[in-house]
Amino acid sequence: MENQRKVGKYEVIITVIATMLALLFLYAALSKLLDYDTSKREMLNQVFPRGISLILVWLVPVVELLIVQTLLFRSTRLMGMYFSSGLLILFSLYISITMSGAFGRIPCSCGGILKHMSYWTHLGFNVIFIVMAVLGIALEKQWNTVNRWFKFFNGRGGASKLSN
């Protein structure tokens, strides 16, 4: 019975983390796509060459939507958490380099509600979601290990029977 509760807790926490990450990336992608002109203008104001900015204006929301898709399914959730943490780390590094003055100027921030955040606030926001993604990765790996043991000792169904 105690093991059933542990498995259930893992699944709930992992699902909450995956859902929060999926909502973050869904919002980010949709805000870029639904207000494409503003998104394009803001991307062209970044420090990248024009050609790269024109690619990124489409590539970033497509990648964000792909991350959302990987987070929605149990079989790809771990990969989605890795991708989430990777993209958040890359963007946080970009914010940090920008804040350091390395580019000689500080371009405008992101669109959506995040544009009202300072770069420091945005960096803190990203760090919170990076920590969540890393926690999700650790829990997902631990849950997968527990699930394999349940399947081994209990036959087919394992933890999936226990968590229902």
Automatic annotation (TrEMBL):
Identify this protein by name. Answer: Methylamine utilisation protein MauE domain-containing protein
Q: Which Pfam families match?
A: MauE
Q: Name one GO cellular component term.
A: membrane
Transmembrane as a keyword of this entry, yes or no, is: yes
Domain annotation Methylamine utilisation protein MauE: ranges: 12-138
Mind telling me which InterPro entries this protein's record contains?
Methylamine_util_MauE (IPR009908)
State whether keyword Lyase applies.
Answer: no
Q: What coarse category fits the chief subcellular location reported for this protein?
A: membrane
Bilayer disposition of the protein: Multi-pass membrane protein
The UniProt keyword set, sorted, is: Membrane, Transmembrane, Transmembrane helix
Query: What's any GO biological process attached to this entry?
Result: methylamine metabolic process
Its annotated compartments are: Membrane
Bilayer-crossing regions: 12-30, 50-73, 80-99, 119-139
